[in-house]
Structure formats: structure tokens, C-alpha cells
């Protein structure tokens, strides 16, 4: 999508995804993280993908969309499975059925927003002003699917790879936990650079052109590899190593230009809250490399299907005493799904 349509959509979505807007969601994120860890921490066995990194981004994304949080499972598995399931897999039919069920529920949410608006990104896209008109259903569903895909699997992949690396490098895990006030931000950017959850994007040439001595024709496709750029030795010292203190880390993991990832603030925030919670409550965690399952192919997302921690709970692991769970009603009551501009307007 090019401007001006692209600009209209960005203007619609920015008030929901700005740093200030995302910051309001931190208590909800923390509650979901706490509930996920409480579910497994006393047993000692937790799969950091299935039991944490899949769930938290999914629940948060649905909350931001304005879709009931209890429906997270309808969206979670098809989003992940559609990425890691090969086209010739015998499981492809089951995944297609899950995708159809998710699509039907999303279409129902769009239809409801047209007649009974409720706060959230679904309502925002449905009623977006695109050059004086609201977008048709096909564009609405496409835009919402992009937000769902970007909100789910990328953050899951980043979290899983980072926890796996920290498990294999306990000295660095202890350093990050001890010095998190000064290292958390730089470590987050370094994990983003090194693992590049979304390794690249395809682009279509809109006109004949020449670049770096190569001729390109209108309509030809090009793969922009953010992962390769993130390992460029002319830009990053020792690019194939993780340096939690790396300075000036201008990586490409969120893309570049006008199409740069609009959800980068969400991804960073959710990742940090999950990581800090694990470091606090499971400080000596260790993942079993023999049971870790990476995506068979990278393609769109460099992700993981499983990252288990199988041994009994250590004495240092702590269970929360709180029993509350985030709910759709709580999200509605606090106005979290509204754009940040709406709360600003009410305060004036």
C-alpha cells in the first residue's frame, strides 16, 4: 500500500500504538504474564512458547483490537500454525479450518463494529477516514489481519529466542538481571538485531530503475533482508555475537521508511515485561535444548514452536499470591482500548 492511503491508515492507528498509548497497557500485560507463570510455576515444567510467549501477545492484541479476551485461543493457534506449517504438511487442512474459524470471528467483529461501535482497533479501522470514505470490508479485514499477525508471532519469536540464549549463557542472564536498570533497553535492541524475528520483506518495483549497477523492471519483486543488514560488519562490530551493552544499535528489525513497523512500541514493551517477570520469578531457569523446536523454515518469521523448561521448580521460583485475571470488562471500563487522544480530550 502506498500513500496517500497508507498515510490515512497510519494516522488512524498511531493514537492507539504510540509510546504513551502502549504504556497504559502495562498493568494488563503484567497481569497476563503473572497468570501465565502462576499456571505453571509450581509444577516446574513450563514451555516458554506455549505457556507464555504465545499467550501474552495474543491476549494483549485482542484487547487492543476490542475483541473479547476470552477468544484469544480462536486467533492464537491459526496465526502461529499458518506460519510454521509447510504447504505440503498433512496438518495443512486442520490449519486451514482454524484460519477459516478465525476469519469468521474477525468478520463478525467487523460487522458488529459497523452497527455497534466499541473502543479498539477494529472500530478504528472500520470507521477510518480514507480520503473521505470508510474502507471496504476487504481492506478492513486485510489491515486487521496484518495487525494480528504482526502482534502475535513476532514478539513470541523474539521472546523465545532470547530466553533460549539466556538459558545457554547463565552468566549473561545473571548480568542482565542484576544490571537491568542500565542493560534492559540495550539488551532488547541487541536481541532484536541478532535474532531479527521478521527477517525481511518483499517489495514491488513501481517503475523501471537502476540501483548499484543493477537494472530493475516495473513489477519485479525484491526481497529486503533485514536479517542480513543486521549482520553487516560495516555497521556492527562483531555482528555475529550478542553484546548486551552494544551502543548505537541502529538495527533494521522493524524495517525502514514509511512502512516501518507501527507496532514497535508494543513489541518492545511486551517483550520487556515478559523477560523481567521470568528473571524475577525464575532466575535460574534452564531450557532443555533437546526439546526446543525451531520453525522448520524461516520464511516470514524466524520463530520457535516449543521451548520447554522440564525440571522441577527451584526454591528461588516464586508464585504470586494474586488471583485476579484481566477481563474485557476491565479493559472497557478503564478505557484502555480507546485512542490516547480520547483520554487527552477528556482531561482538558
Architecture overview:
The chain is mainly α and 348 residues long. The chain has one domain (5-347): Cytochrome P450 (Cytochrome p450). It has 15 helices and eight strands. It has helices at 5-17, 19-23, 26-41, 49-53, 55-65, 72-84, 92-115, 121-126, 137-168, 170-178, 180-195, 226-229, 264-281, 328-334, 340-347, and strands at residues 46-47, 200-204, 209-211, 214-216, 221-225, 293-294, 304-306, 308-309. The strands form four sheets. The protein has a two-stranded antiparallel ribbon with strand order 1-8. Strands 2-5 form a two-stranded antiparallel sheet. Strands 3-4 form a two-stranded antiparallel sheet. A hairpin with a 2-residue loop joins β3 and β4. α5 (55-65) packs across α6 (72-84), α9 (137-168) runs parallel beside α13 and α11 crosses α13 (264-281). The longest helix is centred in the middle third of the chain and has 32 residues, at 137-168. The radius of gyration is 21 Å and the shape is globular. The mean pLDDT is 89.
Amino acid at each position: 500500500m502506498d500513500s496517500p492511503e497508507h498515510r490515512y491508515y497510519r494516522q488512524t492507528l498511531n493514537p492507539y500504538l504510540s509510546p504513551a498509548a502502549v504504556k497504559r497497557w502495562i498493568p494488563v500485560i503484567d497481569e497476563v504474564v503473572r497468570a501465565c507463570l502462576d499456571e505453571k510455576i509450581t509444577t516446574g515444567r513450563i514451555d516458554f512458547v506455549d505457556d507464555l510467549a504465545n499467550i501474552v501477545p495474543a491476549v494483549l492484541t485482542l484487547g487492543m483490537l476490542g475483541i473479547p479476551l476470552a477468544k484469544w485461543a480462536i486467533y492464537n493457534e491459526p496465526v502461529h500454525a499458518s506460519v510454521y506449517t509447510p504447504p505440503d504438511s498433512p496438518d495443512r487442512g486442520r490449519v486451514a479450518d482454524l484460519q477459516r474459524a478465525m476469519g469468521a470471528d474477525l468478520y463478525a467483529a467487523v460487522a458488529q463494529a459497523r452497527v455497534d461501535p466499541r473502543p479498539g482497533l477494529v472500530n478504528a479501522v472500520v470507521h477510518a477516514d480514507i480520503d473521505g470514505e470508510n474502507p471496504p470490508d476487504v481492506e478492513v479485514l486485510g489491515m486487521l489481519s496484518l495487525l494480528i499477525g504482526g502482534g502475535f508471532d513476532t514478539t513470541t519469536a523474539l521472546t523465545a529466542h532470547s530466553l533460549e540464549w539466556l538459558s545457554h549463557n547463565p552468566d549473561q542472564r545473571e548480568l542482565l538481571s542484576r544490571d537491568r536498570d542500565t542493560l534492559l533497553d540495550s539488551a532488547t535492541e541487541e536481541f532484536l538485531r541478532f535474532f531479527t524475528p521478521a527477517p525481511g520483506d518483499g517489495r514491488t518495483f513501481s517503475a523501471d530503475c537502476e540501483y548499484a549497477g543493477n537494472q530493475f523492471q516495473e513489477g519485479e519483486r525484491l526481497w529486503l533482508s533485514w536479517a542480513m543488514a543486521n549482520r553487516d560488519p560495516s555497521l556492527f562490530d562483531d555482528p555475529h555475537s550478542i553484546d548486551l551493552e552494544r551502543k548505537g544499535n541502529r538495527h533494521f528489525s522493524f524495517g525502514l521508511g514509511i512502512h516501518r513497523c507501527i507496532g514497535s512500541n508494543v513489541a518492545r514493551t511486551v517483550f520487556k515485561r515478559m523477560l523481567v517477570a521470568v528473571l524475577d520469578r525464575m532466575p535460574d531457569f534452564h531450557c532443555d535444548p533437546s526439546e526446543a523446536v525451531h520453525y522448520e523454515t524461516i520464511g516470514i518469521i524466524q520463530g520457535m514452536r516449543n521451548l520447554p523448561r522440564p525440571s522441577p521448580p527451584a526454591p528461588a521460583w516464586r508464585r504470586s499470591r494474586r488471583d485476579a485475571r484481566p477481563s474485557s470488562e476491565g479493559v472497557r471500563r478503564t478505557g484502555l482500548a480507546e485512542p490516547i487522544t480520547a483520554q487527552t480530550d477528556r482531561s482538558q
